[in-house]
Design goal:
five-stranded parallel β-sheet; 764 residues; 18 strands; four-stranded mixed β-sheet; CDC45-like protein; alpha/beta; Rossmann fold
Length: 764
Amino acid sequence: MESTLYTHLTSTHNATNPPLLILTALTVDALCAVRILTALLKRDFIPHTVVPVSGYADLQDAGERLVQPLKRGAGGAGDGGRVVCIGCGGGVDLSELLLGLPDEDEAEQDGLEVAAQQQGHGVEIWVIDARRPWNLENIFGNGYEGEGVKEGRILEHYQGGRGGVIVWDDGDIEREMDEVKEAWMGLRDMPEITEDDIAIGNAPEDGEDAVAGDEERGDDAELSSSQGKRKRSHSPDDHDPEAENSDGDDERPSRRRRSNSGTPIPSSPGGNPMSNQLAATASPSAPVPSSPPAPRAPSLKQQKKDLLRLRRRHEATLQKYYDAGSWTADPVSIMLYSLAEDLGRDDNELLWLAIVGVESVALSPFASSQTSKSFDEGGRRSANRLDIVKSLLRDEVRRLNPPSLHSQSQPDYPDTIPTQARSATDTSIRLSPEPRFLLIRHWSLYDSMLHSTYLSTRLHIWSESGRKRLHKLLAKMGISLSEAQKGYVHLDLEIKRSLNQRLSRFAEQYNLDGLVPGTDYEGKTAWGFVRSWGWRGTLSAVDVATVVSAILEVGPSEHFATSDLTLGKYDPGRRETFSASLLHRTRQAQQGTTPSGLPSPPHSSDDNNNHHTNPNPSDETPDYTTTRFFLALDSLSPSTASHTTAGLPTLLHHLPVAQTLARAILRTGSHLISKKQIRHLRSFRMGVVREGPDLGLFVHPGALVKLGRWVGEAVGVLEAEKNGGRKKEGSGRKKEDEEALVLAALDEGRGVYVVVGLGGGSDG
């Protein structure tokens, strides 16, 4: 379906059409998807515009400024236009938020037809989003059938032109949403339910009073009288309209409906619909053969009860879908790579973007919402969708990067982590047994282990005993502290070749079972991805995702203390700390001077509180969200000899951003855990960051979410150890693991708290 839509776009787009509008979320996965899509569009010479949106307010503003002018009759031209929402929009009704179309109730009050509006505006919106649940209006609420659309599904002969919302399905809708689809379609085709109908449906089945019984018997008498009149008539055209409307003011559906079981609910009270046809065609003088009495038809009251019961069943089905919580489906970058593969345009550059996008989702704390739904009967985590996607990507790496003769002639050290290219022109993607360390190629071994979320939380690195456990682990591995504090690229060659073996030897003793991948050298299960750019550098996909994410969350490297890229040495005395610099610039902004740094991030309430934070409302604040977005987008651009200022150079230049953020997370998280500032409330955990050298850093929601992930995993490890690592029988996961975590950070510049919420600690 996706390739059909794209092919239709390339065949119908011309110079008179407006540029394709791409609205994208501020995530690494969405940026990788944008890079893949724009690469395809450039090859087909289709003009496009990329607009970042940081929330629903930005999405609505983009709809008013950019989308609604594309509608027919509102300044649009041709087919109206096309809009692509990448990583956003799946959870809201886009026909209302972007197009400004009224909902069904408002349209009925205005005497308008929603279907006619949707068929005529000419704006086609593609939604490519991995966040679930869907807003079902986007899937099944297109409002029209025919012309390549059947029950909300786009068929192969779809021509487009009328506009509407089109959701790109990753397979969930076809495989898992049949019941939800049936409930939605049933409610859409169901007649209006009045308050009298609800009162009838709530009446007891067996406790009918005498008045209700008399009314029902009266209805039956009128129905039998009406049927008698029809039997005495010689022609089906000779009927009594009063007999058909003998139900008085009771409303009835205008056409026949179907229930869940597929049996029709008659549109009017009466017996078997075939009985009237037999009576009308039979001769009045012909003898009527004796037959058993027909079953008594349900009364109007019973039909209304059945209809109300069916409606409640459908509503319960939809409510169950929405109440299932939030989870993540296939990353949007892999969906766009699948499109490129269907078009026959897959290559190493697009494959690398898809790999980085998938790894960024795996690093996200919100990915645990997806994996928490995948547990077997014994409470063990089963293979989740990301594991399956990574397995498919490994197959793609083998297909597009076959081993060369040069690599086959070199000695094979399968446990060695690649740190350099095979040649000056080597840009291939390789599989690597990556340990769960942070930026190991660009830091010292000690710092990489210390700032690893997986290792630091399990060794209790926030305490002195935890630091001693780390030192003892290094000693058992035969690595001295002085050697470990060297840059990884300068480690002893024998240590680098045997590092994974030394780690796996003591992993079980320190509860680090998932620290290194297994020894499946053939299938290379759980191995990571590494790419080289000649002699200029070698990065893993996790490294790239970490750096790009840091750019999006906390800004460019000019706002951080300098750091040696090779050894990772950090001297806080070189310049003032980030938080102090940020607070100083914020106060400058409040005094009316122009700051050169990055102030507090924009907030939805800034417009209402502008007189408190800015004495000169007319002064325009720079759009730092857009600046960060395009800087991160440049870091993902292809790095070739002709592109020396983007891609790899941008990534290497902003490595200190990721390192500084990791240090701040470790310091602040250790303080929260060691001082026992995480409170366990009735239904969630809560922590507040009010002070500290890194307070100004965590006013950025993205950085605060990363801190929440670290704290959540640490609390989850502590709870598991407290319970002896045992799970409650039949529960799958412990109750403590299911609790949410709410984390707040004080924004001293605005005098407010930035609050984020996410799921409980991961169990690794």
